From TrEMBL:
Task performed by this protein: Metal-dependent phosphatase that shows phosphatase activity against several substrates, including fructose-1-phosphate and fructose-6-phosphate. Its preference for fructose-1-phosphate, a strong glycating agent that causes DNA damage rather than a canonical yeast metabolite, suggests a damage-control function in hexose phosphate metabolism. Has also been shown to have O-methyltransferase activity that methylates glutamate residues of target proteins to form gamma-glutamyl methyl ester residues. Possibly methylates PCNA, suggesting it is involved in the DNA damage response.
Domain Damage-control phosphatase ARMT1-like metal-binding: 55-454
KW Transcription regulation (keyword) present: no
EC number: 2.1.1.-, 3.1.3.-
Keyword check for S-adenosyl-L-methionine: yes
Cofactor needs: Mn(2+); Ni(2+)
Gene Ontology molecular function terms on file: fructose 6-phosphate aldolase activity; fructose-1-phosphatase activity; metal ion binding; protein-glutamate O-methyltransferase activity
Any single Pfam family the record assigns to this protein: ARMT1-like_dom
InterPro entries given in the database record: ARMT-1-like_metal-bd_sf, ARMT1, ARMT1-like_metal-bd
Protein name per UniProt: Sugar phosphate phosphatase
Annotated family: Belongs to the damage-control phosphatase family. Sugar phosphate phosphatase III subfamily.
Superkingdom of this protein's organism: Eukaryota
């Protein structure tokens, strides 16, 4: 607790320097010193039109309603598979989720979890931390807590509603949307696999400059794959329809920060630097959405291995259904099986190669519970040291998507030109990059005045998904 309070004070002191106008300063009596806790987006919600407020007031209830409808639609299936027990489980799960929706919409206090899952204590300790930052008689509630916390908490309560009601506990309420996104993006996926196969054929003849050009293209395809996210669309179909390669040129102006060259240089230096025999060149992907975005991740990962820029790839997914379309182990394995059994030759060839990479250990998949906690990544070294140590073995970590960016930067209303490394606040297990389309109002690392100009031109530039960044934080200096 003390450790957390001290870290909080350091962070707050840092944050106090920023002019953010969305802070509600809550004075927390903490021993003799008061720690000024900058309350996330608490104030922002009081601004009726803030993105955080509209997300919690409108979009999250819409997502919850879809979840309830989905479970109801599967009622007969639960009965066929599990008899009366299945019906009972469906009824109880719906009742828990309806209660959750009412708590959310009427700003009720955040409740401790009771399902006994592996991460339950971490969640309940986090709730205690939130309580310790408020006046004793003010419980953390849905509209008086940081947006990042309550949004993550909603998905964890959905998990609780499943797990408290076997046999629906392994029913993924978001599965339909994720598989639909995969099938609706088939045309784009086969274009991508055909392009990748062409690279595999010519790889040994490519010059370094040609290799770099292909890398930059596949990195940008991977970046824009992040637009296919079902949380921002509240579950509405959101798949890739156009050619992911042909559209790159027209999308370039919308990349606000492009540090691709720094990423390329890091990978190339790793490849060219002599290392002890048998040592690896490791790239970790902290995954985001299943469906087309996952295909773009796998294609880039394949290219990195085939080109020798990496010798092994570690994928990090979610250990429970998360933010509607995030990738679980089941999604990852299903996607590889779908690719393998695809009618299109090159998709099937890619699927076979990818299954082979997994079997040979060139690719691996893990899903640490930390990724589905509400914690900012600067808390990882203290709260999940084994995961932080795992990431320290990487030569490059690729963070995909908007939620990861919010956790990298603590979801603070930083000034736009604050350096990315500053916003990481000490989270730096290895050289890392973020490939993110902007869908939440937090952004750092811009040029002076760039954010203000964007706001003047397009008030929704941070939340529309139209703009993107490729941001890099290199090796430790010194
Ligand atoms: O991480 P992703 O899939 O790119 O985006 C997640 C997201 O859609 O959900 C949150 C808003 O509800 C935001 O972080 C973001 O808009
Ligand atoms: Mn996501």
């Amino acid at each position: 607790m003390k450790r957390f309070a001290v870290r909080l004070a350091e962070r707050n002191l840092l944050k106090c320097l920023f002019s953010g106008n969305c802070w509600s300063l809550r004075r927390i009596p903490e021993s003799r010193r008061t720690i000024v806790y900058l309350h996330g987006r608490g104030r922002a919600w009081e601004q009726e039109l803030s993105f955080a407020y509209l997300t919690v007031k409108d979009r999250l209830p819409k997502i919850l309603t879809k979840v309830i409808d989905t479970i109801h639609r599967y009622k007969n299936k639960f009965f066929e598979e599990h008899g009366e027990e299945g019906l009972e489980a469906e009824k109880k799960a719906i009742s828990l989720l309806s209660k959750l929706k009412n708590e959310l919409q009427t700003d009720k206090p955040i409740l401790a979890l009771t399902d006994g899952l592996v991460d339950m204590d971490m969640w309940n300790q986090y709730l205690e931390r939130q309580q310790s930052l408020l006046d004793d008689n003010v419980p953390p509630s849905w509209f008086k807590s940081p947006w990042l916390y309550v949004e993550c908490y909603m998905y964890r309560r959905i998990q609780e509603a499943r797990c408290l009601n076997p046999p629906v506990s392994d029913f993924d309420v978001f599965e339909e949307g994720k598989t639909q996104s995969f099938f609706e993006s088939q045309q784009a996926s086969l274009i991508l696999c055909t392009y990748l196969q062409g690279l595999h054929k010519d790889l040994t003849d490519l010059s370094e400059e040609q290799l770099r050009e292909h890398f930059i293209k596949l990195l940008q395809v991977c970046l824009w794959g992040n637009r296919c996210d079902l949380s921002i669309s509240a579950g509405q179909e959101n798949s890739q329809k156009s050619s992911p390669i042909d559209s790159l040129e027209s999308l370039k102006p919308f990349i606000l920060v492009d540090e691709s060259t720094k990423i390329w240089t890091t990978l190339l230096n790793n490849k060219l630097t002599r290392r002890p025999a048998g040592s690896s060149r490791r790239v970790d992907f902290v995954l985001d959405n299943a469906g087309f975005e996952l295909i773009t991740d796998l294609v880039l990962a394949d290219f990195l291995v085939a080109s020798g820029l990496a010798t092994d790839i570690h994928f990090h997914g979610k250990y429970m259904p998360w933010f509607v379309s995030d990738t679980t182990k089941k999604d990852f394995e299903w996607t590889l099986r779908q690719m393998l059994s695809a009618s299109h030759l090159w998709m099937s060839v890619c699927g076979a190669r990818w299954q082979g990479y997994l079997k040979e250990g060139i690719w691996s998949y893990q899903d640490h519970p930390f990724w589905t906690l509400p914690h900012e990544f600067c808390d990882m070294a203290a709260d999940a040291p084994e995961l932080y140590a795992e990431l320290q073995r990487a030569d490059l970590i690729v963070f995909k998507g908007d939620l990861n960016y919010r956790k990298l930067t603590g979801d603070r209303k930083w000034d736009y030109d604050v350096p990315f490394e500053t916003a990481l606040r000490g989270f730096h297990p290895a050289p890392l990059c973020s490939l993110r389309t902007l869908k939440a109002d937090v952004q750092v690392g811009l040029q002076a005045g760039q954010g203000e100009n964007l706001t003047a031109a397009d008030t929704d530039w941070m939340t529309s998904g139209k703009y993107a960044i490729i941001q890099f934080c290199g090796p430790h200096r010194g």
